[in-house]
Design goal:
This protein has 220 residues and is of the alpha+beta class. The protein is built from 2 helices and 11 strands. It has 2 domains: 50 residues; 162 residues, Lipocalin (Beta Barrel). 17% of the residues are buried.
Length: 220
Amino acid sequence: MTNYLAILGATLSLFAAACHASQDTAKPAAVKPAAAAPASAATPAATTPATGARPRYTQNAAKSSLKFTFEQAGAAASGNFKKFTTVLIYDEKNLAASSLNVRVEIASVDTQEPERDAMLKDADLFNAAKYPAATFAASSLAKRADGGLEAVGKLTIRDTTHDLRLPLTLKPTPDGLELSGKTAIKRLDYGVGQGEMKATDSVGDEVKIEYAVSLVRSRS
Protein backbone atom coordinates (compact mmCIF):
# COMPACT_ATOMS: atom_id res chain seq x y z
CA MET A 1 0.00 0.00 0.00
CA THR A 2 2.78 2.35 0.88
CA ASN A 3 4.50 1.70 -2.46
CA TYR A 4 1.24 2.33 -4.33
CA LEU A 5 0.75 5.71 -2.60
CA ALA A 6 4.37 6.67 -3.27
CA ILE A 7 4.05 5.83 -6.96
CA LEU A 8 0.75 7.74 -7.22
CA GLY A 9 2.28 10.77 -5.50
CA ALA A 10 5.27 10.76 -7.83
CA THR A 11 3.01 10.48 -10.88
CA LEU A 12 0.91 13.47 -9.76
CA SER A 13 4.04 15.51 -9.11
CA LEU A 14 5.41 14.79 -12.60
CA PHE A 15 2.04 15.69 -14.19
CA ALA A 16 1.92 19.01 -12.32
CA ALA A 17 5.48 19.84 -13.34
CA ALA A 18 4.70 19.04 -16.98
CA CYS A 19 1.66 21.36 -16.97
CA HIS A 20 3.68 24.18 -15.42
CA ALA A 21 6.47 23.79 -18.02
CA SER A 22 3.91 23.78 -20.85
CA GLN A 23 2.39 27.09 -19.64
CA ASP A 24 5.83 28.74 -19.39
CA THR A 25 6.70 27.67 -22.95
CA ALA A 26 3.49 29.10 -24.44
CA LYS A 27 3.89 32.61 -23.00
CA PRO A 28 6.60 34.00 -25.43
CA ALA A 29 4.69 32.76 -28.51
CA ALA A 30 1.63 34.80 -27.47
CA VAL A 31 3.45 38.17 -27.66
CA LYS A 32 5.34 37.68 -30.97
CA PRO A 33 2.59 38.94 -33.36
CA ALA A 34 2.11 42.20 -31.43
CA ALA A 35 5.87 42.95 -31.47
CA ALA A 36 6.21 42.30 -35.23
CA ALA A 37 3.40 44.65 -36.38
CA PRO A 38 5.08 48.08 -35.73
CA ALA A 39 8.30 47.08 -37.55
CA SER A 40 6.31 46.03 -40.64
CA ALA A 41 4.32 49.27 -40.70
CA ALA A 42 7.47 51.41 -40.57
CA THR A 43 9.17 49.83 -43.60
CA PRO A 44 7.59 51.90 -46.49
CA ALA A 45 8.39 55.27 -44.89
CA ALA A 46 12.00 54.29 -44.35
CA THR A 47 12.53 53.42 -48.05
CA THR A 48 10.83 56.48 -49.63
CA PRO A 49 13.52 58.67 -51.31
CA ALA A 50 13.48 62.44 -50.81
CA THR A 51 13.28 64.63 -53.95
CA GLY A 52 13.99 68.34 -54.46
CA ALA A 53 12.83 70.84 -57.09
CA ARG A 54 15.37 71.83 -59.76
CA PRO A 55 16.25 75.54 -60.22
CA ARG A 56 13.76 77.36 -62.50
CA TYR A 57 14.57 80.54 -64.43
CA THR A 58 12.23 82.92 -66.27
CA GLN A 59 12.97 85.67 -68.77
CA ASN A 60 13.50 89.31 -67.93
CA ALA A 61 11.99 90.75 -71.13
CA ALA A 62 13.52 94.21 -70.68
CA LYS A 63 17.05 92.78 -70.82
CA SER A 64 16.59 90.12 -73.52
CA SER A 65 16.92 90.12 -77.30
CA LEU A 66 16.21 87.73 -80.18
CA LYS A 67 17.74 88.92 -83.45
CA PHE A 68 17.96 87.47 -86.96
CA THR A 69 19.72 88.29 -90.22
CA PHE A 70 18.99 87.17 -93.77
CA GLU A 71 19.76 88.13 -97.32
CA GLN A 72 17.27 90.20 -99.33
CA ALA A 73 17.92 91.17 -102.94
CA GLY A 74 21.62 90.44 -102.49
CA ALA A 75 22.01 92.63 -99.38
CA ALA A 76 22.07 91.78 -95.69
CA ALA A 77 18.89 92.54 -93.75
CA SER A 78 18.20 92.18 -90.05
CA GLY A 79 15.43 92.34 -87.53
CA ASN A 80 14.28 91.11 -84.14
CA PHE A 81 11.25 89.80 -82.30
CA LYS A 82 10.03 92.15 -79.61
CA LYS A 83 7.90 89.61 -77.77
CA PHE A 84 9.10 86.18 -76.69
CA THR A 85 9.23 84.17 -73.47
CA THR A 86 11.82 81.76 -72.11
CA VAL A 87 11.69 79.25 -69.26
CA LEU A 88 14.81 77.30 -68.27
CA ILE A 89 14.98 74.42 -65.79
CA TYR A 90 18.70 74.04 -65.17
CA ASP A 91 20.54 71.50 -63.05
CA GLU A 92 24.24 71.60 -63.87
CA LYS A 93 24.72 68.24 -62.15
CA ASN A 94 21.93 66.60 -64.14
CA LEU A 95 21.79 68.07 -67.65
CA ALA A 96 19.54 65.27 -68.90
CA ALA A 97 16.84 66.42 -66.47
CA SER A 98 17.14 70.09 -67.50
CA SER A 99 14.82 71.74 -70.05
CA LEU A 100 14.36 74.88 -72.16
CA ASN A 101 11.11 76.25 -73.59
CA VAL A 102 10.83 79.34 -75.81
CA ARG A 103 7.74 80.91 -77.41
CA VAL A 104 8.11 83.66 -80.02
CA GLU A 105 5.20 85.91 -81.03
CA ILE A 106 5.51 86.22 -84.83
CA ALA A 107 3.47 89.44 -85.04
CA SER A 108 6.14 91.19 -82.95
CA VAL A 109 8.69 91.01 -85.82
CA ASP A 110 10.48 94.32 -86.36
CA THR A 111 12.93 95.07 -89.19
CA GLN A 112 12.63 98.87 -88.94
CA GLU A 113 10.67 98.84 -92.21
CA PRO A 114 6.86 98.53 -91.86
CA GLU A 115 6.42 97.35 -95.46
CA ARG A 116 8.93 94.52 -94.98
CA ASP A 117 7.39 93.60 -91.62
CA ALA A 118 4.01 93.23 -93.31
CA MET A 119 5.61 91.04 -95.99
CA LEU A 120 7.20 88.75 -93.38
CA LYS A 121 3.86 88.34 -91.57
CA ASP A 122 2.03 87.63 -94.83
CA ALA A 123 0.62 84.19 -95.74
CA ASP A 124 3.51 83.41 -98.13
CA LEU A 125 6.12 83.73 -95.37
CA PHE A 126 5.39 83.38 -91.64
CA ASN A 127 1.59 83.60 -92.01
CA ALA A 128 1.26 85.18 -88.58
CA ALA A 129 -2.54 85.19 -88.70
CA LYS A 130 -2.71 81.38 -88.94
CA TYR A 131 0.48 80.52 -87.05
CA PRO A 132 0.88 83.23 -84.39
CA ALA A 133 3.84 81.65 -82.57
CA ALA A 134 7.06 79.77 -83.17
CA THR A 135 8.26 77.49 -80.38
CA PHE A 136 11.38 75.68 -79.30
CA ALA A 137 11.04 72.89 -76.75
CA ALA A 138 14.03 70.99 -75.34
CA SER A 139 13.56 68.23 -72.77
CA SER A 140 17.27 67.99 -71.98
CA LEU A 141 20.63 69.76 -72.18
CA ALA A 142 23.92 68.15 -73.20
CA LYS A 143 27.65 68.86 -73.41
CA ARG A 144 29.03 69.72 -76.85
CA ALA A 145 32.32 68.37 -78.13
CA ASP A 146 33.97 71.74 -77.43
CA GLY A 147 32.82 71.65 -73.80
CA GLY A 148 29.93 74.08 -74.26
CA LEU A 149 26.26 73.36 -73.79
CA GLU A 150 23.39 72.70 -76.19
CA ALA A 151 19.66 72.29 -75.77
CA VAL A 152 18.39 69.14 -77.47
CA GLY A 153 14.90 69.86 -78.74
CA LYS A 154 12.47 70.65 -81.51
CA LEU A 155 11.77 73.91 -83.36
CA THR A 156 8.26 74.49 -84.70
CA ILE A 157 7.42 77.21 -87.24
CA ARG A 158 4.21 77.31 -89.33
CA ASP A 159 3.16 74.02 -87.69
CA THR A 160 6.27 72.31 -89.11
CA THR A 161 8.67 70.71 -86.60
CA HIS A 162 12.31 69.67 -86.94
CA ASP A 163 14.97 68.55 -84.46
CA LEU A 164 17.37 71.30 -83.44
CA ARG A 165 20.40 71.29 -81.15
CA LEU A 166 20.62 74.87 -79.91
CA PRO A 167 24.07 76.07 -78.76
CA LEU A 168 24.02 77.77 -75.34
CA THR A 169 26.37 79.75 -73.18
CA LEU A 170 25.24 80.23 -69.58
CA LYS A 171 26.82 82.85 -67.34
CA PRO A 172 25.85 83.63 -63.73
CA THR A 173 24.41 87.06 -62.94
CA PRO A 174 23.36 88.65 -59.62
CA ASP A 175 19.71 87.67 -60.29
CA GLY A 176 20.19 84.38 -62.12
CA LEU A 177 21.73 83.51 -65.49
CA GLU A 178 22.44 85.00 -68.90
CA LEU A 179 21.72 82.63 -71.79
CA SER A 180 23.27 83.45 -75.15
CA GLY A 181 24.25 81.85 -78.44
CA LYS A 182 23.99 81.75 -82.24
CA THR A 183 22.56 79.29 -84.74
CA ALA A 184 21.27 79.15 -88.32
CA ILE A 185 18.27 77.50 -89.94
CA LYS A 186 16.82 77.13 -93.44
CA ARG A 187 13.51 78.98 -93.76
CA LEU A 188 12.23 76.67 -96.52
CA ASP A 189 12.58 73.66 -94.18
CA TYR A 190 9.73 75.21 -92.17
CA GLY A 191 7.57 76.33 -95.08
CA VAL A 192 8.49 79.99 -94.65
CA GLY A 193 8.26 80.70 -98.36
CA GLN A 194 5.20 79.80 -100.42
CA GLY A 195 4.47 80.58 -104.07
CA GLU A 196 6.90 83.14 -105.45
CA MET A 197 8.56 83.44 -102.03
CA LYS A 198 10.09 79.97 -102.44
CA ALA A 199 12.65 81.52 -104.77
CA THR A 200 15.90 82.29 -102.98
CA ASP A 201 17.15 84.93 -105.39
CA SER A 202 15.05 87.63 -103.69
CA VAL A 203 15.05 86.28 -100.10
CA GLY A 204 17.85 83.94 -99.03
CA ASP A 205 17.12 80.51 -97.56
CA GLU A 206 19.50 80.73 -94.60
CA VAL A 207 18.47 82.73 -91.55
CA LYS A 208 21.01 83.42 -88.81
CA ILE A 209 19.68 83.77 -85.28
CA GLU A 210 21.36 85.39 -82.30
CA TYR A 211 19.95 85.41 -78.77
CA ALA A 212 20.88 86.99 -75.44
CA VAL A 213 18.38 86.28 -72.70
CA SER A 214 18.45 87.52 -69.12
CA LEU A 215 16.98 84.90 -66.78
CA VAL A 216 15.84 85.47 -63.22
CA ARG A 217 15.76 82.55 -60.77
CA SER A 218 12.26 81.80 -59.57
CA ARG A 219 11.64 82.14 -55.82
CA SER A 220 9.07 79.34 -55.76
